[in-house]
Design a protein that fits this description.
Blueprint (H helix, E strand, L loop, with lengths): L13 H11 L1 H21 L8 H12 L27 H12 L4 H24 L4 H22 L10 H15 L6 H14 L3 H22 L5 H20 L1 H9 L4 H10 L7 H10 L4 H10 L14 H24 L2 H22 L13 H23 L2 H30 L7 H19 L11 E7 L6 H12 L3 E5 L3 H4 L4 E2 L6 E7 L2 H6 L5 E6 L4 H20 L7 H4 L1 H6 L6 H13 L3 E6 L7 E2 L6 E2 L5
Parallel strand pairs: 1-2, 1-4, 2-3
Antiparallel strand pairs: 4-6, 5-6, 7-8
């Protein structure tokens, strides 16, 4: 029963209370369900793919599988952060901890890892909507929903179901921005959410650390000012102090694993990160070079219209428009925002003030963080910046809407009070339908590699169980190594993960410790047999090894792709010859390495090499004696060349 004032009566049962809560919060629940529906569709579609993770995806699955064991990870994934032989890792393991429960409940498979990633992103969306609903404003709720829908459309269903550590925090960063805005609106109860979301982002991928750190400091500063202004002894001051204390107290709890590693490391990972960024081998790019990477992200046409036409454009930053029309669009976008920011002062709306203050801080932090990038600003280092760009678009829309409302007569204002949010909700639905349409045809990234790995792993597992070559079934200990002419060991790492998942005792050759980490690194004395992946020209070299038994091979290329790869490889060979290269067979054994050694190659030659890598090459798996060595012979000189493989 319900009391006369609409409050639950003392006799209301549990089911009635739940029903009342659902009625009161029906709209935010509906918005949340609408937003996450495309993620669920993508998960269902991906179920048919039987995904086999490669490279970083495989390493992440291993870390997630370690959660709760004696080898629970204390750090994030190893990164390109220092010397290749002993790189620093991303700061912490929170992402692995959050993925682990759903991963295990759903069967601990490659698909389970994708599904747990989607569920984690759905949780981020739900929290962001819940924070927005604390304003009890239909307009705030609708605009938050629109911003999230357009952001998800830009990232695309594939990215939002992939567990890669740069991808994992993108929606959590959006939730972090909503939480910081809420604190700037003097909702200090959200301070602990700021701490948690900032920690998830910063631990998963190091580029988030300075951005989240700076904006979190802004939130703490606002909280400190609110505490100082509150009268001593008042309940308000006590509440503010309690929220700030909880937020700060969560930091050592959330960062305990990396702190433990820091105390036991020699040196610890945090020390290695500090040394890498404080004394880099290459100078950061600086503000001048950072400017175009920042400027072109604040382009309303690109992040709204272009993503509606072709979703998932944020994952392809190299195709971001930098032509004159795009320059004009970015300039217009930033100019409109500046006018809206000034207009918010005239409108005397504190919610808008807080929103524009956060956008201003975000633009500044984006510029400074981008300027500190070491090396080329690869797209995944700036995935987070689209969240700030979308915040700018939402801030402009909110300000323009508020200004129109102020200029209208009371009667028109009453009509707009329901019409404006209704239009925003309609935009949420339309953007979500567009994303849902894309989700029906979603495929994992690096699809050709994962498909090749799946076939090779299936045959390899069968061969091990039948004691092929020097294999001894599930009682054996297998050292995984590879000679990869295209993908830097991506499929070899994935092969080790596939074998480990089904119960084989496997380790990676110690020469790959800088990539695979020390936990799964073994020397040849430990192993009873070696499992060796090869592709391209390395397959023939593997067959020459005494005692080698080939247990699997696959060539997924169509006849047209084979002809295309042959033509492009000929162009690459001619380009290397023109550039003075003597070893013209190099591209058959290590195409990325050969191209990297000739940085002056024409842009179209670089594109040709990228296309050859995309097409792929035949792959094979061998079972070798533990002391086997695979080498190649330079066709030009007949001299032995150091192997990439075992």
């Amino acid at each position: 029963m319900v009391g006369c004032r609409g409050q639950p009566s003392e006799t209301m049962n549990g089911g009635g209370k739940i029903a009342l809560v659902l009625r009161r919060h029906a709209l935010p629940i509906a918005v949340t369900v609408t937003l996450v529906a495309p993620l669920l569709i993508a998960v269902v579609v991906l179920r048919a793919e039987d995904w086999a993770p490669v490279f970083d995806f495989a390493l992440i699955e291993q870390k997630v599988r370690d959660v709760g064991t004696a080898h629970t990870p204390l750090l994030g994934l190893p990164g390109r952060l220092g010397a290749p032989t002993e790189p620093a890792s991303h700061p912490g393991p929170l992402g692995f901890f959050l993925l682990a429960p759903a991963y295990r409940l759903l069967g601990a498979s490659g698909w389970a890892l994708e599904a747990s990633t989607a569920l984690l992103n759905a949780l981020a969306v739900a929290i962001a909507i819940a924070i927005a609903w604390r304003r009890r404003s239909l307009a705030v709720l609708a605009l938050t929903g629109v911003g999230l829908a357009l952001l998800m459309q830009g990232y695309g269903p594939s990215m939002l179901t992939e567990p890669w550590n740069p991808n994992l925090p993108v929606l959590w960063f959006a939730t972090f921005l909503v939480a910081v805005w809420s604190v700037l609106c003097m909702d200090l109860a959200i301070l602990p959410v700021v701490t948690v979301t900032a920690s998830i982002c910063a631990q998963s991928h190091i580029p988030y650390a300075p951005v989240c750190g700076a904006l979190s400091a802004l939130a703490v500063l606002v909280a400190a000012i609110a505490i100082v202004r509150a009268k001593d002894g008042t309940d308000q001051r006590k509440r503010h102090l309690r929220y700030l204390t909880v937020a700060i107290g969560l930091l050592p709890v959330l960062w305990l694993p990396p702190l433990i590693e820091e105390l036991h490391g020699a040196p610890g990972n945090l020390t290695r990160l500090y040394r890498y960024f404080s004394d880099p081998a290459v100078r950061p790019i600086g503000l001048r070079q950072a400017f175009p990477f920042v400027f072109y992200r604040f382009n309303a046409r690109y992040i709204v219209v272009d993503q509606w036409i072709a979703p998932a454009g944020f994952t392809q930053p190299y195709t971001m428009p930098t032509n004159p029309p795009a320059t004009v669009a970015s300039a217009v976008t930033l100019s409109i925002w500046a006018l809206c920011a000034f207009g918010s002062l005239l409108l005397r709306n504190r919610l808008l003030w807080a929103l524009h203050a956060l956008v201003l801080a975000g633009i500044g932090v984006t510029a400074l963080a981008t300027a500190r990038i070491i090396g080329y600003p690869l797209g995944h280092l700036l995935f987070w910046s689209f969240g700030i760009a979308m915040l700018l678009v939402v801030a402009c829309a909110a300000t323009i809407g508020c200004a129109i409302e102020r200029l209208c007569s009371p009667s028109v204002r009453r009509r707009l009070a329901s019409l404006g949010p209704a239009l925003a909700v309609a935009a949420v639905v339309l953007a979500t339908l567009r994303l849902a349409s894309a989700a029906t045809s979603v495929r994992p990234s690096v699809f050709a590699q994962t498909r090749q790995l799946r076939a090779l792993a299936r045959d390899t597992i069968a061969a091990l169980e039948h004691n092929a070559g020097t294999a001894t079934g599930r009682s054996g200990r297998y050292l995984v190594s590879w000679s990869d002419s295209l993908h830097a060991g991506a499929i070899g790492i994935g092969l080790g993960n596939e074998l480990e998942r089904v119960g084989f005792d496997v380790g990676y050759d110690e020469r790959f410790a800088g990539v695979t980490g020390p936990l799964r690194t073994r020397d040849q004395k430990w192993a009873t047999a070696r499992i060796y992946f090869a592709n391209g020209a390395w397959i023939a070299e593997g067959r020459r090894v005494p005692g080698a038994v080939q247990v699997s091979s696959i060539d997924q290329r169509t006849d047209a792709e084979k002809k295309e790869a042959e033509v492009l490889s000929g162009a690459l060979t001619d380009a290397l010859r023109s550039d003075g290269e003597q070893d013209l067979e190099w591209i058959r054994y290590d195409l990325p390495g050969a191209m990297a050694a000739h940085p002056g190659l024409h842009f179209f030659i670089v594109l040709a090499g990228s296309r050859v890598i995309e097409i792929g090459r035949p792959g094979a798996v061998f079972i070798l004696p533990t002391d086997a060595v695979v080498t190649r012979t330079n066709a030009a000189s007949g001299a032995a060349v150091a192997p990439i493989g075992p």
